[in-house]
């Protein structure tokens, strides 16, 4: 069977068939019972008539009332009628011999009664002869009564037996229907519900990023078609995403190149101007002025070199030296590298960093914290707080994704992540600048001090580690950078990829 439709129809047909059989069995059962009850009525009639015969006979002999004789004859007719009507039943219950006996008993009784009645209206006989005739009739009546009673008892036994057979048949039919229902339900669960719930599980896993494509949970036509088209759609989406990424990268490169050209142009034209002045010197220029031009050239050369160095840091794709390191240790090692360059009145608080293990390139990741701390210091913060906690992505993912950078899709595939926050009590970031902060060459530092590549580099490094970073202003004042990184259990995937 290769389609869900045929499986559902089979199961439905099975249940319906079982129900129809059950109804047929119930009807047959009722008919069987009814036949026996109807047949039993003739036996009952004969038994009741024989009892009445005995009663009327007693009255007749006691009161000699002709009405009793009349009654007696009526009952005899009833008995004869019942016997004629139920000959087949009587033969089945009592057998031909007994039936004959019964008929004879009835005839004998009838004859004796007629004989008794014919003698002078009960007066043409001597007392002794009358008593003898009465005794004869009584004996025949007694025999008739015994015979009918015996047959009535057997009929009752047969009826009891019939009822019990009917009840058993009904029970067997019910049990069969329940069994067929159960089998059909099991069939549905195994062949229809289970593949569907497996498909549902796979979709969940797909949403969580644990699997890349759907596997076939069964060979049903509908499921095959769904999985095939769904996987094809996923493939298309991924291809489109890759294309988009390629376009974005090309666009970013364009921005970078024009930024570099612009940034380098400034120091170069300053150098050129100073060199021009020196070259045009006819020996009359003051020494201190010449020194000033030379130091200007030196400063601008240094600035150009700084830009190039930063740029190289950013664009080169170093071979990652991934290692397992605790989050606390990582932050502390970064702080050790920078703390000498910080103002003495700047306090660095490293608080509550739960020691989740991260698989990172330590040097690259240290650079992230160095840049963030340096930026906060430049902005004029007096305190910097670094905190970290382990959590699930679902629980701690960014609420506001406006100022989010990095690989937020990559990290959403990990269940457990480390969230590290770098807060400061500086002036914060003007809302208009928030969205531009990670752009290359965006800087607010005047006089060629800043390169605008610090946060760009931060984003690149976080991206390489499949993490993401968000920036916001703290309600209490100052800036907050939040970094999400995948925790160790899921990180080996990155190692393979790097
Ligand atoms: P640079 O430090 O060379 O200017 P960055 O990319 O590191 O380049 O930073 C870009 C800009 O972001 C800075 O010029 C500054 O205006 C802003 N910025 C970064 N960090 C902070 C902070 N903690 N507080 C206020 N402004 C910040």
Structure characterization notes:
The chain has 498 residues and is α+β, with helices and mostly antiparallel strands. It has three domains: 189 residues, Up-down Bundle (Four Helix Bundle (Hemerythrin (Met), subunit A)), CATH 1.20.120.1730; 75 residues; 178 residues, 2-Layer Sandwich (Heat Shock Protein 90), CATH 3.30.565. The chain is 68% helix and 11% strand. It has a six-stranded mixed beta sheet with strand order 2-4-6-8-7-5. It has a two-stranded antiparallel ribbon with strand order 1-3. α3 runs antiparallel to α4. The longest helix has 81 residues. The C terminus is likely disordered. The structure holds adenosine-5'-diphosphate. Adenosine-5'-diphosphate (ADP) binds next to α8 and α12.
Envelope shape:
rod-shaped
Question: How helical, in percent, are the residues?
Answer: 55-70%
List the secondary-structure elements in sequence, H or E: HHHHHHEHEEHEHEHEHHEEH
Describe the main β-sheet briefly. Answer: 6 strands, mixed
pLDDT averaged over residues = 87
What's the number of domains? 3
Into which percentage range does the β-strand content fall?
5-15%
Class of secondary structure makeup: alpha+beta
Low-confidence runs of at least 5 consecutive residues: 490-498
**In angstroms, what separates the terminal alpha carbons?**
46 Å
CATH class of the largest domain: Mainly Alpha
CATH architecture of the largest domain: Up-down Bundle
Give Rg in angstroms: 55 Å
């Amino acid at each position: 069977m290769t389609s869900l439709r045929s499986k559902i129809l089979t199961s439905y047909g099975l249940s319906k068939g079982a129900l129809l059989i059950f109804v047929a069995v119930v009807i047959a059962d009722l008919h069987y019972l009814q036949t026996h009850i109807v047949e039993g009525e003739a036996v009952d009639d004969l038994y009741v008539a024989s009892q009445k015969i005995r009663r009327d006979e007693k009255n007749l002999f006691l009161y000699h009332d002709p009405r009793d004789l009349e009654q007696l004859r009526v009952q005899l007719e009833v008995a004869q009628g019942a016997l004629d009507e139920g000959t087949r039943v009587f033969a089945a219950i009592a057998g031909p011999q007994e039936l004959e006996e019964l008929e004879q008993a009835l005839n004998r009784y009838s004859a004796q009664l007629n004989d008794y009645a014919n003698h002078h209206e009960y007066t043409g006989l001597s007392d002794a002869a009358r008593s003898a005739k009465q005794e004869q009739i009584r004996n025949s009546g007694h025999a008739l009564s015994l015979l009918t009673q015996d047959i009535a008892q057997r009929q009752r036994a047969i009826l009891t037996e019939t009822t019990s057979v009917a009840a058993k048949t009904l029970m067997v039919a019910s049990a069969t229907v329940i069994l067929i229902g159960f089998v059909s339900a099991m069939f549905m669960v195994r062949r229809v519900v289970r593949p569907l719930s497996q498909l549902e599980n796979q979709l969940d896993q797909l949403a969580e990023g644990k699997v890349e494509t759907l596997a076939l949970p069964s060979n049903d036509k509908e499921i095959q078609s769904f999985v095939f088209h769904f996987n094809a759609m996923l493939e298309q989406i991924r291809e489109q995403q890759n294309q988009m990424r390629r376009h974005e990268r090309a666009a970013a490169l364009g921005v970078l190149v024009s930024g570099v050209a612009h940034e380098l142009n400034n120091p170069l034209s300053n150098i050129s101007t100073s060199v021009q002045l020196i070259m045009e010197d006819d020996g009359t220029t003051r020494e201190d002025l010449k020194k000033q031009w030379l130091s200007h050239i030196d400063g601008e050369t240094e600035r150009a070199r700084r830009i190039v160095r930063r740029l190289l840091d950013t664009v080169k794709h170093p071979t990652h030296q991934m290692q397992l390191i605790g989050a606390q240790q990582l932050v502390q090692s970064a702080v050790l590298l920078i703390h000498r360059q910080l103002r003495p009145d700047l306090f660095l608080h490293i608080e509550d960093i739960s020691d989740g293990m991260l698989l990172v390139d330590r040097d690259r990741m240290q650079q992230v914290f160095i840049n963030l701390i340096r930026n906060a210091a430049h902005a004029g913060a007096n305190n910097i707080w670094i905190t970290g906690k382990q959590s699930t992505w679902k629980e701690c993912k960014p609420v506001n994704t406006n100022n989010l950078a990095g690989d937020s899709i990559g990290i959403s595939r990990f269940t457990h992540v480390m969230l590290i926050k770098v807060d400061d009590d500086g002036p914060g970031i003007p809302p208009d600048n928030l969205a531009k902060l990670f752009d290359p060459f965006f800087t607010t530092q005047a006089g060629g001090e800043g390169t605008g590549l610090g946060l760009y580099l931060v984003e690149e490094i976080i991206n390489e580690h499949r993490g993401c970073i968000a920036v916001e202003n703290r309600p209490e004042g100052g800036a907050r950078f939040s970094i999400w990184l995948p925790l160790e259990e899921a990180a080996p995937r990155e190692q393979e990829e790097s």
